[in-house]
Design brief:
alpha+beta; 7 helices
């Protein structure tokens, strides 16, 4: 059995969506997390070592960090077809997009959203945010999903980041079309309905 430790309208919403896509039984444990500049506390029920979300528990094992959770679950439930298996064509691209989402897309979008100068691209691990936007734009102008024609767990991470930042990425019809495709997914709609409990 899978238990998702979840707080509405946070990064754990995308894991709720993933679980809906997988179609496997799961429980949701709603926990309190610190939000933004607000105060807050670590919910003692939350197994995440930093008391953040998302966190899942599967058969007594705790998995945290969105990219790790997506990889763990798509590998654990391959019948859902949400991630290429080891040895299957597309596996390398899948792993690359999972890591790129966490290591480049999200920090670059946060720096753009906060209008921060991240520093010289040669020094900052995620490089120039505009290079990331250009790479995403090229990919989604030429493909319906980041792996081409195949929707995958990588799209759950990438689209949740784009959804957060769409307002700071004007003039990108390819991003809007991508988000429209995502919005038509029934599992995505169910996750939004279940988000707040």
């Amino acid at each position: 059995m899978i238990t998702l430790f979840h707080s509405p309208a946070t990064r754990s919403t995308r894991i709720l969506w993933l679980l809906e896509e997988l179609g496997e039984p799961f429980d949701i444990e709603y926990v309190t997390v610190r939000r933004g500049e607000e105060g807050g506390f670590g919910d003692p029920r939350n197994p995440h070592p930093d008391k953040k979300v998302p966190a899942i528990v599967v058969d007594g094992e705790v998995v945290t960090e969105s990219a790790a959770i997506v990889l763990y679950l798509t590998d654990a439930f391959p019948a859902a077809g949400l991630g290429p298996r080891v040895g299957e064509p597309g596996r390398a691209a899948y792993l690359t997009w999972l890591a790129y989402s966490a290591g480049v897309i999200e920090p670059a979008l946060f720096s753009l959203a906060r209008n921060q100068d991240p520093g010289p691209p040669a020094v900052v691990a995620w490089g120039d945010p505009q290079d990331m936007v250009q790479r995403l734009s090229h990919t989604l102008s030429n493909n319906p999903y980041v792996l081409g024609d195949r929707f995958s767990g990588a799209d759950i991470l990438v689209s949740s980041a784009i959804q957060f930042a769409l307002h700071i990425l004007p003039g990108h019809a390819e991003f809007e079309a991508y988000m429209a495709r995502i919005g038509e997914r029934q599992a995505f709609k169910r996750s939004l309905e279940r988000d707040a409990g």
